[in-house]
């Protein structure tokens, strides 16, 4: 077996050669979640072909600026005379409802994106709502708030609806992702719904979802509607109309406006932007969440966003950052190459702003780090546009492949190696989520990096459940194998004995 450095260098060289030839191909494996083996598949294909794939008007719930607010976004047919409206009630018959109005912007041809925020939400309450599209109220749906100060979240990575393209199903069909025939999206949307249903059946008190990017797969530019069928599959999942989802912009989301038209993210900083949008943040109970668009490599802007978030909510017990690119992961495809382009710049920022946990995606493998800190030395900064799109504006496909690049990225120290958790620890925990749908998997890098405590690749959809209160952050990670749920890592806990951060 090649050494880690030689293996990574050989892989990068092969990637460069393929990219220069005009056909960059990832080392995606033959493993994927084949939905055609499920007994509900035939009924799903009829539903997908007849309705779901054509319905771009599904609603998305996202966290508001704090736990008492909730944001809504949905497409409707273009109608400049209609004011977007959501009605909220504590009664299932929608009696004594409160109406909230919002604004609309032009979306893809023939559609507008509607955005509304509701406020004054109470904890431990079931709410019913309906929204107006094309002048008519939707069917009544519901969502439930839980304890604001002690709650659970579902953390997932890379649903990437449509990424199973090119795989062959149990029925001998090769999955495609053409705009008009996206059988890959059909396969992956089924799996996404199955993962959410499985996770929620086991954890019915989840407050919201954290998705570490790549909601969809198809890279299209600007306002090209070519990925709308994949967003339709993502938003069609049963729980999406009842669970807020906080999403990160992944490299597959980054080049297209549809992301920001489907998700009404709070506290939009207008920093760290790509075509899809930029950095945002919100508070929920004892935690501050900062979501950075690391497809933009301007870390000065990311620092501005982090500073703005901390100044807005200075006294939260926990600070959690979510990014797509894994600056500390263990997957073969990214963790020692483009994933760490921002490591030298972001690691000191996690120290400076006292970040407890960083949630990552991108590498389609699972890993958990030790607690890490910056080594406080000066290191080179690297700027390179995401290689997934092979559009480096500087002209080189992947310029950082030499030993000095690897040496500069040894910019961390391992602050704590306790395996089950840490009390009043110093440093930042870095989590890497495997694919929640199994639409695409990567290999682990051959040699486990010294900063990695635990890692795995079992070729099954995974999800994590995070429990948080004023004193504890705890995470459990599961895989769905053969219809059964099983843990793939021990519970890991961060504890703080002080009542508040300051």
UniProtKB/TrEMBL annotation:
Signal sequence residues: 1-21
InterPro entries noted in UniProt: Calcineurin-like_PHP, Metallo-depent_PP-like, PAPs-like, PAPs_N, Purple_acid_Pase-like_N
SUPFAM superfamilies (alphabetical): Metallo-dependent phosphatases, Purple acid phosphatase, N-terminal domain
Span of domain Purple acid phosphatase N-terminal: 57-145
GO molecular function, one term: metal ion binding
Record protein name field: Serine/threonine protein phosphatase
Calcineurin-like phosphoesterase domain: residues covered: 197-366
Entry-linked Pfam families: Metallophos, Pur_ac_phosph_N
Keyword Signal: yes
Alphabetic keyword roster: Signal
